[in-house]
Amino acid sequence: MWYGGMTPELETLYDQYYEMFQGDPDEYIELEYGQQDYEDYVRDIKKAIEQQKELPEVVK
Length: 60
Known about the structure:
The chain is mostly helical. It has helices spanning 8-21, 38-51, 55-58.
C-alpha cells in the first residue's frame, strides 16, 4: 500500500503498471510504503515494469 501523495511521476508509473498487470501497484496490502519511502516505491515500480513481474515478486 502507498500512503503518500500522488505525483505526476507516480501517475505515469501507475498507468504503465496498469497496462501491464491490469492493477495498481498500491493494491498489495503486504507491502507498505509511506511518503518517506517515495524513492524506494518509485524504484520498485520501475523495476517491476522493467522485469515484467508484479511488485511483490521484485520486492524481497
